[in-house]
Specification:
12 strands, Elongation Factor Tu (Ef-tu), domain 3, six-stranded antiparallel barrel, 2 domains
């Protein structure tokens, strides 16, 4: 079953450990999440990648996930430095408000921060865009960056721009990114299906 998210980060945590487990790895995140106790098997996005809780640390200090080799190779989680701050979001429950946009937690590609510029209390960021994702990203459309729902302010074939408002700057890890920092990207789900429909219609 596909779990859904909104791209509204509920908390941040710290990547505390990454231990090889077969071809994959176990990831341990130190954090506390609102909304009641976590359950084994519950889905949480970690910097935008949907993972299932396998262990809960004593005292609610954090939790562990098993990450497959696919997840480690297709996201930043395989190389992210220990101690790095990560964005976290629990999956939607029936009746929850959809405050961002529909996010699946299936990372489509990895980009990198090209430039950052102060814009008053906000922050203007420009990211590289993998060529395979360019057709799914549109000005004033939505994209998830490290699991954060963002509005695209401008886009070219190789990059896109967003404006990070003050609350997002402090509540997520986007405000701490430096040029060269790698980020997980998930394109808008609706854009993906529209592009697929158009490709079939004109085949």
């Amino acid at each position: 079953m596909t779990r859904m998210f909104t791209g509204l980060v509920g908390a941040t945590g710290v990547l505390a450990a990454r231990t090889p487990r077969g071809p994959g790895a176990q990831l341990v995140v130190h954090a506390q999440l609102e909304g009641g106790d976590l359950a084994h098997g519950e889905s949480v996005t970690v910097d935008g990648a949907c993972l299932s809780v396998t262990d809960i640390l004593p005292g609610g200090a954090g939790f562990a996930f098993d990450a497959t080799v696919e997840t480690l190779s297709r996201t930043t989680l395989g190389q992210l430095a220990l101690g790095a701050r990560v964005n976290l979001e629990r999956s939607l429950r029936a009746g929850d408000r959809l405050g961002g946009h529909l996010v699946t937690g299936h990372v489509d590609g990895v980009g990198a921060l090209l430039t950052r510029r102060e814009a008053g209390e906000a922050l203007a960021l420009s990211f590289s865009l993998p060529s395979a994702l360019a057709s799914y990203v549109a000005e004033k459309g939505s994209i998830a960056i490290n699991g954060v729902s963002m509005t695209v302010n401008g886009v070219s074939d190789a990059s896109f721009d967003v404006m990070v408002i003050p609350i997002t700057r402090t509540a997520t890890n986007l405000g701490a990114l430096d040029p060269g920092s790698r980020v997980n990207l998930e394109v808008d789900l609706v854009a993906r299906y529209v592009a697929r429909w158009l490709a079939r219609d004109h085949a």
